[in-house]
Amino acid sequence: MAIGGKKLSWIRRDFLIGGASALAYMRGVRINAAPRFPDNPFKLGVASGEPTQDGFVLWTRLAPFPFDEMSGMPLEPVVVEWQVSSDEGMSKVVAKGSTIADPTMGHSIHVEVSGLEPHRYYWYQFRTGSEISPKGRTRTLPMAGGSIDAARIGVVSCQKYEDGYFTGFRHLSREDIDLVVHLGDYIYEKKGKFYKTRTHHGGTCYTLEEYRARYAQYKMDADLQAAHAAHPWAVSFDDHEVVNDYAGADEGNSDPTDEMTYRRTAAYQAYYENMPLRRSAIPNGPYIKLFRRLHFGNLLAINILDTRQYRSEQPCYAGKKVERCDEVFDQKAAMLGKAQEKWLYDGLRSSSTRWNTLAQQVIVAPRQLSENRYSMDKWDGYEIPRRRLIGALGDGHVSNPIILSGDNHRHWVAELRSKPEDQETPVIATEYIGGSIASRGDGSEMTNSGRRILKLNPHFKYFCDQRGYLLCTITPAQWRTDYRIMRYVERPGAPIETRISFVTENGRPGAIQV
Ligand SMILES: [Fe+2]
What is the pLDDT of residue 120? Predict the structure, then answer.
C-alpha cells in the first residue's frame, strides 16, 4: 500500500478485539474485516477533537452513498484501522490500532488515543478494506499546569448551509491555531427550499436517518472537511441540531412516545455519530452529557457549556422578542440546570489558570432590542440564573473570566457588569460574540437594528452583520480577539480580513479596541 511514494505500516489483520467488536461478537454478528465498497467510504472526511495533553479523539463515518439507506453501508460491522504519526508523511507511526464501525452508530468511529507527547502536532489516517482516508492533522494540548506563552483558538458557530458557502472554514483551516471551538448550530433542521443559495437535501429532520443525511450533506462540504482535517475541535450544540428554540427541561421527558423525546433521541444520536466526541458523550436516549472542561497548561481553562438541554421554557410567550414579564424573574427558572451549575461554579472557584473561559451559546449581557423589548431565548429571559452566573464570575475568586457566545449570527463585543443594566457598576467579565459562518447570508456591516441596539446598550462595543469567526490569542498578559470577517458568502471565494480587534488585559475586565 503506498501513498505519495511512502509505504504505510498498517497493522496486520489479526487485530486485537476492542470494546465495540467484543460487543458485536456477543451479539453473534459477523464482523467484516475485509469489506469491499461500491464507492469511496470516506466522503464525509475525517476529524479529531477533545484534545488532552497526551491524546485526542479520531473520527470518521463510513458513507459510500451518504443519502442512501444506511449511507450505502451493509448492515454489518466493519473493521477500520487507524494510525497516528509524528510526521506528515506518515512514516513515524507512534500509535495504531483497529476499531469497529457498527451500523448501530451509523458506521461512525470514535478512537480515543492517549500516551502521546504534549503540545505538538500529529497526523492520522484510516483504512478499511482497501480504502484509505484523507489525512488529518491534530494537536495535543500543553502539559497540565505547565506554563505556556500563548494559546490560539478559533471560535465558530451557525453554519446554515442554505444561506451561504463555508468559505470561512477554508480560511479557518489555514489559521495557526491550537483548537477550534464550535458553539452550536452545526446543522439546521428545516427542509430544503428551492430559492436559497444552496438547498437542504430532503425534508425537515425528525428521524435518525434524516438527521444523519443532514449531517452528511454538511460534512460533504470540502471547506468544512478542510477545517476538520487541519485542527482538533471541541464542539457544543445549540438548538438547530434538534429544532429551533427548543427548551430541554420542559419538552424532553422520558416517554419515548412523546414527539419531542423521540426527536431529541434521534438528533442527539446523530450528533454523537458525527462529532469527534468521547465515549462519555454517548447519548442515553434523549440525554447527552456535553458540558466539560479543557485546560491549556496554567494559562487557560475552557468550560464548554450546554445552555439548551437543561433550560426551562422561555418565559413571556416563549422566545419571542417581547417586554420582560414576571416570568423572567421566576426563582425556579433554569438555564444550565443544577448539576451543570454546580460543576461550573465549583470548577471556576478551584481553577488555577490565568484565564477562565465560558464557551457557550446564547448572549449573556443584557441586550435591549428596542424600547424594553428583549429576546427571551437569551440569558435576558433567565434573570435569576444570570444573577447566579454573575455572582460566581464576579465574587473575586475567578481569574479573568471571558465569555464566548454564538447563536446570534452577528458579531458583537459586550461588557458584563456586576449589575448588568447599571452602567455605574464594575465590569466583571468580557463577552466576545462570534458571528456565523453562513447563517443570514452576505449581510452588511451595519443595520438599523445594530445601530439601535448599540445606542440602547452602551456596554455593547461593536456590531457587524457579516459572516466570519473569532480568532483568540491568549497570553499571560492579554486576551486578544480578532474579528475575522468576509464581505460575502452567497458566492464562493471571499477573502477574509481582521476587521477589528479587541483586547482584555490581565486583571482588567472589559474590551479595549486596538
Ligand atoms: Fe444559528
Answer: 97
Look at the chain and report how many structural domains it folds into. Answer: 2
Is there a contact between 413 and 432 (Cβ–Cβ < 8 Å)? yes
Tell me, yes or no, whether 103 and 183 share the same domain.
no
Integer angstrom CA distances of residue 373 from 120, 140, 299, 316, 425: 48, 45, 39, 11, 22
Would you say residue 112 lies in a domain?
Answer: yes
Which DSSP symbol is given to 459?
Answer: T
**Ranges of residues in the chain whose predicted pLDDT is under 50:** 1-8, 11-22, 251-252
- Could you list the residue range(s) of the whole structural domain that residue 320 is in? 152-513
Task: State the distance from the centre of ligand 1 to the C-alpha of 14, rounded, in angstroms.
Answer: 46
3-state secondary structure of 311: coil
Q: What is the pLDDT of residue 421?
A: 80
Cα(175)–Cα(233) distance, rounded to whole angstroms? 13
Domain boundary pick from 139, 168, 194: 139
Ligand 1 center to 475 CA (angstroms) = 30
- Distance in Å, CA 439 to ligand 1 centroid: 6
pLDDT of residue 422: 85
**What pLDDT score was predicted for residue 255?**
61
Torsion over CA of 57, 89, 115 and 33, rounded to 10 degrees? 60
Among the candidates 113, 139, 165, a domain finishes at: 139
In a domain, 144, yes or no: no
Distance 438 CA to ligand 1 centre (A): 9
